[in-house]
Protein backbone atom coordinates (compact mmCIF):
# COMPACT_ATOMS: atom_id res chain seq x y z
CA UNK A 1 0.00 0.00 0.00
CA UNK A 2 2.76 2.44 0.96
CA UNK A 3 4.65 1.66 -2.24
CA UNK A 4 1.60 2.69 -4.27
CA UNK A 5 1.13 5.90 -2.26
CA UNK A 6 4.82 6.79 -2.60
CA UNK A 7 4.66 6.02 -6.33
CA UNK A 8 1.87 8.56 -6.81
CA UNK A 9 3.60 11.16 -4.65
CA UNK A 10 6.97 10.66 -6.35
CA UNK A 11 5.77 10.60 -9.97
CA UNK A 12 2.88 13.04 -9.66
CA UNK A 13 0.62 10.81 -11.73
CA UNK A 14 -3.14 10.88 -11.14
CA UNK A 15 -4.51 8.20 -8.82
CA UNK A 16 -6.42 6.60 -11.69
CA UNK A 17 -3.17 5.97 -13.61
CA UNK A 18 -1.60 3.72 -10.99
CA UNK A 19 0.10 0.76 -12.70
CA UNK A 20 -1.65 -2.61 -12.49
CA UNK A 21 1.12 -3.94 -10.23
CA UNK A 22 -0.40 -1.93 -7.36
CA UNK A 23 -3.80 -2.41 -5.70
CA UNK A 24 -6.80 -0.62 -7.27
CA UNK A 25 -6.44 3.15 -7.15
CA UNK A 26 -9.64 3.52 -5.09
CA UNK A 27 -8.16 1.36 -2.32
CA UNK A 28 -4.86 3.20 -2.32
CA UNK A 29 -6.56 6.61 -2.29
CA UNK A 30 -8.91 5.50 0.51
CA UNK A 31 -5.97 4.54 2.76
CA UNK A 32 -3.98 7.67 1.84
CA UNK A 33 -6.97 9.87 2.66
CA UNK A 34 -7.60 8.11 5.99
CA UNK A 35 -3.97 8.57 7.02
CA UNK A 36 -4.08 12.22 5.97
CA UNK A 37 -7.31 13.04 7.79
CA UNK A 38 -6.13 11.33 10.99
CA UNK A 39 -2.88 13.31 10.88
CA UNK A 40 -0.71 10.20 10.63
CA UNK A 41 1.40 11.66 7.79
CA UNK A 42 2.22 14.73 9.87
CA UNK A 43 3.19 12.60 12.86
CA UNK A 44 5.27 10.27 10.70
CA UNK A 45 7.16 13.09 8.99
CA UNK A 46 7.75 14.87 12.31
CA UNK A 47 9.14 11.67 13.87
CA UNK A 48 11.41 11.02 10.87
CA UNK A 49 12.64 14.62 10.94
CA UNK A 50 13.46 14.45 14.65
CA UNK A 51 15.19 11.06 14.25
CA UNK A 52 17.34 12.40 11.40
CA UNK A 53 18.34 15.47 13.44
CA UNK A 54 19.29 13.25 16.39
CA UNK A 55 21.27 10.96 14.05
CA UNK A 56 23.26 14.02 12.96
CA UNK A 57 23.92 14.91 16.60
CA UNK A 58 21.63 17.95 16.56
CA UNK A 59 18.76 19.02 18.79
CA UNK A 60 15.58 17.15 17.72
CA UNK A 61 13.49 20.31 17.50
CA UNK A 62 14.51 22.80 14.81
CA UNK A 63 15.48 26.29 15.85
CA UNK A 64 14.31 29.52 14.26
CA UNK A 65 15.27 30.57 10.74
CA UNK A 66 15.61 33.84 8.89
CA UNK A 67 14.55 34.22 5.26
CA UNK A 68 15.75 36.88 2.86
CA UNK A 69 15.19 37.53 -0.83
CA UNK A 70 17.02 39.35 -3.57
CA UNK A 71 15.81 40.60 -6.95
CA UNK A 72 18.19 39.89 -9.81
CA UNK A 73 17.89 41.64 -13.16
CA UNK A 74 17.77 39.46 -16.26
CA UNK A 75 18.19 40.27 -19.91
CA UNK A 76 15.95 39.27 -22.78
CA UNK A 77 18.45 36.67 -24.03
CA UNK A 78 18.35 34.76 -20.75
CA UNK A 79 16.01 31.87 -20.17
CA UNK A 80 12.33 32.56 -20.73
CA UNK A 81 11.39 32.33 -17.06
CA UNK A 82 11.23 35.80 -15.55
CA UNK A 83 8.95 37.88 -13.41
CA UNK A 84 8.54 41.41 -12.15
CA UNK A 85 9.24 42.79 -8.69
CA UNK A 86 6.73 45.62 -8.44
CA UNK A 87 8.23 46.99 -5.23
CA UNK A 88 11.70 47.46 -6.72
CA UNK A 89 10.53 47.96 -10.32
CA UNK A 90 12.89 45.25 -11.57
CA UNK A 91 12.20 42.72 -14.29
CA UNK A 92 13.99 39.49 -13.55
CA UNK A 93 14.16 36.74 -10.97
CA UNK A 94 13.86 36.58 -7.23
CA UNK A 95 16.15 34.33 -5.25
CA UNK A 96 15.71 33.44 -1.61
CA UNK A 97 18.03 32.25 1.11
CA UNK A 98 17.03 30.56 4.34
CA UNK A 99 19.54 30.88 7.17
CA UNK A 100 18.86 28.75 10.21
CA UNK A 101 19.56 30.50 13.48
CA UNK A 102 21.58 27.89 15.34
CA UNK A 103 21.60 26.98 18.95
CA UNK A 104 24.63 27.57 21.13
CA UNK A 105 27.70 25.59 19.96
CA UNK A 106 25.90 24.42 16.81
CA UNK A 107 27.06 25.40 13.30
CA UNK A 108 24.69 27.56 11.26
CA UNK A 109 24.44 26.32 7.65
CA UNK A 110 22.90 28.48 4.93
CA UNK A 111 20.52 26.87 2.49
CA UNK A 112 19.79 28.67 -0.80
CA UNK A 113 16.22 28.38 -2.00
CA UNK A 114 15.58 29.32 -5.61
CA UNK A 115 12.12 30.24 -6.79
CA UNK A 116 11.49 31.58 -10.25
CA UNK A 117 8.95 34.36 -10.25
How many helices does DSSP assign? 3
Question: How large a portion of the residues is in β-strands, by DSSP E?
Answer: 15-25%
The strand count comes to: 4
**Which structural category do the helix and sheet elements fall into?**
alpha+beta
The total tally of domains equals 2
Classify the helix fraction into a percent range.
25-40%
Helices and strands, in order, run as HHHEEEE
Question: What is the straight-line distance between the termini?
Answer: 37 Å
What radius of gyration results from the CA coordinates? 21 Å
Low-confidence parts, pLDDT < 50 over ≥5 residues?
Answer: 111-117
Anisotropy-based shape: flat
**Largest pleated sheet:** 4 strands, antiparallel
- Overall pLDDT level: 77
Protein name: Insertion element IS402-like domain-containing protein
Biased composition (Basic and acidic residues): 52-61
InterPro entries: IS402-like_dom
Domain Insertion element IS402-like: 1-43
